[in-house]
């Protein structure tokens, strides 16, 4: 039997470990005496009887005892050498049923094993020495087995064994990682504090330095914690306000330094021009009397879109005709086409800076488009032309403000029309200038002071009761101040004077929409859009609305359909739709 067979391959608890079974058997004999083998209460401690030895094993035993007899007096059993011989040792036979003493153990062993060769007789001292040595050998074997088991577990836990080159590589990587950690911000800050404390505590004892460092650390730490609740919110608010202030200042500087802003001139004479787009189809281009044809259409209540074609033909032949540009601009404004109106009126003013009607119309168009600075600059131009005595102050950009322009118009109102440069015999007899009142109405409207604006427009209407433009401006002011019923009456007055006034019809539709009369509002919008259709064919038919589209009317129409929960109609509300698709449900 080999040593591996004796010890077994499993752990100490394994049932196949012969050495551990033998130790257990020996311990039981020592403390409890031999007992008959049989079932035990604890199944795990059951002893299994081994088979009898053969003759070869008996010879080995005899040789073992002969050697021990010769060396007994010189040296007790050398079990270091015995460990080398254990491969040839077999388990001892089980004891007899009766309890035996250690004195006759050898004799009993020889009697029960008649197949063994005669063994030398041992003295009592030799038996005792043998038993002690054998127990010591077993103990050493257990310790050796535990050590081997521990080493195996330790190796498993610590991972694979590294070679010398691998260890050096690992140490190199670890050192690089440690250096990287030392470069961390927190580490640098901690080292900085440590250096500061060391410099401050230079010359002190180590214990004193430690106490000073500890006191300083606790002071800073606990003071920060104590102040956290009281100061955290305030510090955050202060930081937020500073950040917001810096952001606002930066945004303001960028706004002020904007090249477009600095190069944009609000003055109608020196500022940039809005591009004007001409209609591609115009039957008046070959008409030598296009100007007169246009005036005739306006006087007879003809289509504004058709009249616009006539005046477009005129300015295309004569771009410096200020009056033709003025007529074209007023028509586009009345047709609810504000951008083309501004472009035409700008050219009217550019060709004739003293064209008062063009200046006032342009200022109103600027106001409708929320171009306040341009509106103030244009009104300043108007007051300089009509009342130069009140407009002698510097008209630089810094003086073009709402308050400045209002003061100029109020002073002109106190002077009266007799002091105006361009006047007529009829206007000299008036107590006030209706144009000045109209200008003041626009300024008060732009400042949301609707009550004063209403008074100004009513004053101007008292002098010009048939001015449909003034009626429309009054209606718009009343509508914005929440007086919808009065606004509707003003719009109807304007339409009575000029039924083709598209802007007034559009405004009336807005008034109806604001009070929930959606069907009536839609009919007003569709009626206004139908007036944009240009009928110029030989057969009198046509459905071309031209290139200058009124986006405002189409957008408001879609919004009204949504309010009516008619999303199917809202999808159709675009310039490419034939208006006839709405005729089945609406009258216009």
Automatic annotation (TrEMBL):
Write out the annotated subcellular location.
Cytoplasm; Peroxisome
Q: Molecular function (GO) terms listed?
A: peroxisome matrix targeting signal-1 binding
Annotated keywords: Cytoplasm, Peroxisome, Repeat, TPR repeat
Indicate yes or no for the key word Repeat: yes
TPR repeat positions in this chain? 322-355, 434-467, 468-501
Q: In the UniProt record, does the keyword Cytoplasm occur?
A: yes
Report the record's Gene Ontology biological process terms.
protein import into peroxisome matrix, docking
Top-level lineage group: Eukaryota
Under the heading Gene3D superfamilies, the entry gives: Tetratricopeptide repeat domain (1.25.40.10)
Name one cellular component (GO) term: cytosol
Show the PANTHER family listed in the entry: GH08708P (PTHR10130:SF0), PEROXISOMAL TARGETING SIGNAL 1 RECEPTOR PEX5 (PTHR10130)
Q: Which family does it belong to?
A: Belongs to the peroxisomal targeting signal receptor family.
Q: What is this protein's record name?
A: TPR-like protein
Q: What is the lineage of its organism?
A: Eukaryota, Fungi, Fungi incertae sedis, Chytridiomycota, Chytridiomycota incertae sedis
């Amino acid at each position: 039997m080999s040593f591996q067979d004796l010890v077994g391959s499993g752990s100490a608890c394994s049932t196949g470990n012969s050495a551990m079974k033998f130790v257990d058997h020996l311990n039981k004999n020592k403390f409890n005496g031999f007992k008959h083998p049989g079932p035990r209460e604890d199944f795990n401690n059951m002893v299994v009887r081994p088979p009898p030895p053969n003759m070869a094993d008996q010879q080995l035993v005899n040789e073992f005892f002969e050697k021990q007899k010769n060396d007994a007096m010189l040296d007790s059993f050398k079990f270091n050498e015995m460990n080398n011989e254990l491969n040839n040792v077999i388990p001892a036979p089980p004891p007899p049923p009766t309890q035996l003493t250690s004195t006759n153990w050898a004799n009993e062993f020889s009697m029960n094993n008649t197949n063994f060769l005669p063994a030398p007789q041992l003295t009592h001292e030799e038996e005792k020495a043998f038993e002690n040595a054998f127990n010591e050998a077993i103990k050493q074997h257990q310790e050796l087995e535990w050590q081997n088991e521990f080493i195996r577990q330790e190796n498993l836990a610590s991972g694979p064994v590294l070679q010398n080159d691998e260890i050096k590589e690992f140490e190199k990587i670890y050192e690089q990682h440690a250096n990287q950690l030392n470069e961390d911000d927190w580490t640098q800050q901690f080292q900085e504090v440590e250096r500061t404390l060391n410099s401050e505590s230079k010359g002190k004892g180590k214990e004193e330095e430690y106490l000073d460092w500890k006191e300083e650390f606790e002071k800073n730490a606990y003071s920060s914690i104590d102040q956290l609740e009281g100061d955290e919110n305030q510090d955050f608010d202060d930081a937020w306000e500073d950040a917001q202030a810096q952001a606002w200042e930066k945004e303001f500087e960028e706004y002020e330094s904007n090249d477009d802003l600095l190069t944009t001139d609000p003055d109608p004479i020196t500022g940039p021009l809005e591009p004007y787009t001409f209609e591609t189809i115009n039957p008046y281009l070959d008409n030598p009397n296009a100007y007169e044809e246009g005036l005739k259409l306006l006087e007879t209540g003809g289509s504004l879109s058709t009249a616009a074609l006539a005046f477009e033909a005129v300015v295309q032949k004569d771009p410096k005709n200020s009056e033709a540009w003025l007529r074209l601009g007023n028509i586009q404004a009345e047709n609810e086409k504000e951008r083309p109106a501004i472009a035409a009126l700008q050219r009217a003013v550019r060709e004739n800076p003293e064209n008062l009607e063009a200046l006032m119309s342009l200022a109103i168009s600027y106001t409708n488009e929320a171009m306040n600075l341009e509106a103030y600059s244009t009104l300043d131009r108007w007051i300089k032309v009509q009342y130069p005595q009140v407009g002698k102050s510097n008209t630089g950009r810094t003086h073009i403000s709402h308050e400045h322009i209002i003061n100029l118009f109020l002073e002109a109102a106190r002077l009266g029309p007799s002091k105006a440069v361009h006047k007529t015999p009829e206007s000299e007899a008036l107590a006030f200038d209706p144009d000045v009142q109209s200008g003041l109405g626009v300024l008060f409207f732009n400042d949301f002071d609707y009550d004063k604006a209403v008074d100004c427009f009513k004053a101007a209407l008292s002098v010009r009761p048939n001015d449909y433009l003034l009626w429309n401006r009054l209606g718009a002011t009343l509508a914005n101040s929440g007086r919808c019923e009065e606004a509707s009456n003003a719009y109807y007055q304007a339409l009575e004077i000029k039924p083709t006034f598209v802007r007034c019809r559009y405004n009336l539709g807005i008034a109806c929409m604001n009070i929930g009369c959606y069907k009536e509002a839609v009919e007003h919008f569709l009626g206004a859009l139908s007036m944009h259709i240009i009928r110029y064919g030989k057969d009198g038919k046509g459905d071309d609305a031209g290139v200058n589209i009124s986006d405002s009317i189409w957008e408001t129409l879609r919004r009204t359909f949504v309010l009516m929960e008619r999303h199917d109609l809202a999808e159709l509300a675009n310039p490419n739709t034939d208006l006839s698709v709405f005729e089945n449900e609406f009258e216009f």
